[in-house]
Design brief:
Number of helices: 7
Largest sheet: none
Distance between the termini: 31 Å
Order of helices and strands: HHHHHHH
Radius of gyration: 24 Å
Mean pLDDT: 84
Low-confidence stretches: none
Length: 120
């Protein structure tokens, strides 16, 4: 419906994505050497730096220590999921869309219910 109702907005969005990708290409090609050097930094130094920047970033969004605590909790949860080989997508979807309470929320077609009984 977005394409049909406001094509100028849609094509403007698509055009901005092309422009953004072109800008990323122009900016990152000269910086490849820097990115390669960052990968050569030992893990013992790189990991605490990444963690520090994540902590600073989560605090500066709202200047609230609760955000930092939430980041730590979800980071630990992600670590446990990865360690025990759990797929995180179903868990995230269940958190976002809510757990199934056993009820069918789909629209029920009357003739299907009459033919097959009350199984929906």
């Amino acid at each position: 419906m977005l394409i049909k109702e406001s094509p100028q907005f849609f094509w403007g969005l698509v055009g901005s994505m092309y422009i953004g990708n072109l800008m990323l290409l122009l900016l990152n090609l000269p910086l490849i050497g820097i990115w390669v050097r960052i990968l050569k930094v030992p893990y013992d130094i790189l990991f605490p730096m990444i963690l520090l920047f994540c902590l600073i970033g989560s605090y500066t969004i709202n200047n609230n220590l609760a955000d930092v605590l939430i980041m730590i909790i979800f980071g630990f949860l992600g670590y446990l999921l990865k360690k025990f080989n759990y797929d995180s997508v179903p868990i995230i979807l269940s958190i976002v869309f809510g757990a199934d309470d056993g009820e069918c929320h789909a629209p029920v077609d009357d003739h299907v219910e009459r033919e097959h009984g009350d199984f929906l």
